[in-house]
Amino acid sequence: MSGEKTEQPTQQRLKKAKQEGQIGRTPDLGAWFGMLAASMLLPRTLGQAMEHAEELIGKVPDVITRPEPAKALAILKEGLFGAAWAVAPLALTMMAVGIAAAAAQGGIRVATKLFIPKFNRLNPFTGLKKMVGPQALWELTKSLFKTVVLGAVLYMTLKDIVPRLMTAGRLPLTALLGIVTDAVISLIRAAAIAGIAMAAADYFVVRRRTQKQLRMTKEEVKQENKNTEGDPLIKAQIRARQMAMSRNRQMADVPTADVVVVNPVHVAVALRYEPEKGAPRVVAKGKGPLAAKIRELATENRVPMVQDVALARALDSGCQVGQEIPAEFFGAVARVLAFVMSLKARGSAAGLHRNPSPTPV
Asked: Model's pTM, two decimal places?
C-alpha cells in the first residue's frame, strides 16, 4: 500500500529529525563510560585528597592552641581549594567522556525546537501508548536485567571482601581503608563494564526504533525530492527561459560579428575579432532554425558569410558562445578573416561567399 512506511529516510528527513532532537541515542552509554573512567582516576583522587587532609589536620593543633578567625578561615579556604583541585581531573574527565559519548551517537546539537511548547505532548493517550507498547516492554526488560546484573556484580564483590574484613580486626586503619577502597573500585569497574554492555544493547535497540519511526512512504519520498530538487515541470520551464534568453543575446551580437562561417544550410557560427582582446571569439552559433536566423540577421546587417563546411561543423562542436576559439582553429579562422578583409578591400564583403581555401574534411 502507498501509505506504508517502507522507504529509508532521506538526508533531508534525517537532518530535520536531528534539528528536532529525534536521534537514536541512550544516556546510559555516557554514564557508564564515565563511571569506568572514574574508577581509573579514583585512586589518584583519593590519594591526593588524603595527602591534603593530612596536611590540614597537622595545622589544626596550632589553631586550637592559638585560636584566630583568620587562621581558621585560611585553613578552610585551603581545604576547599585542595578538594576542588583533587576532584577537578575526575570531574573534567567524566564531562569529556559524556560529551564524547554523545558525539559518537549522532553528534552534539542543541534541539531548540524541543523548547517550543506543543500541546500534543500533553495528550494522555500518547503517554499510555508508551506505557503499554514495545518501548515500555523494552524499558522494563532493561531495568530488570540491569538490576540482576548489578546485583550479581555486587554479590561477587562482597563475597570476596567480607571474609577479609571479618579477619582484619588487627590490621591498621590505613590497611583496612586500602582493602575497602580496592573493593569499592573493583565493584565500580565491574558494574561499569556490565553497564557498558547493557548500554550498547540499548543503543542498538533505540537506534533501530528511531530509524523505523523515521521511515517514509513512497509518496513522502517523491514529495520531498520534488521540494528539494524542484518540480520537473518548473525546472523545464526555467531551462526553456534560460535558453531563450541565451538565444536572444546571441541574436543581438550577430550584427557585431566580423564573419559568419556557414555549412551553408544547417550550421552557422558568428565570429568577432578584436586584436586588443585576444583570439577571435564566438558570439553566436546554432543549427537548423537558429542557423537560419543567424544567416538572416547577417544578411540584414551586411555581415559577410563564408561557406566552409568542415570549419563550420568543427567550430560548432568545439567552441562555446562567448569564448575564444581554441588554438587548433587559429590557422583556418585566420585564412577566413584574411579572405573577408580582401573582400572588404574590394568593397564587396556582404553576402555569401565560398572560401577559396576551405578547411580539409
From this structure: 0.45
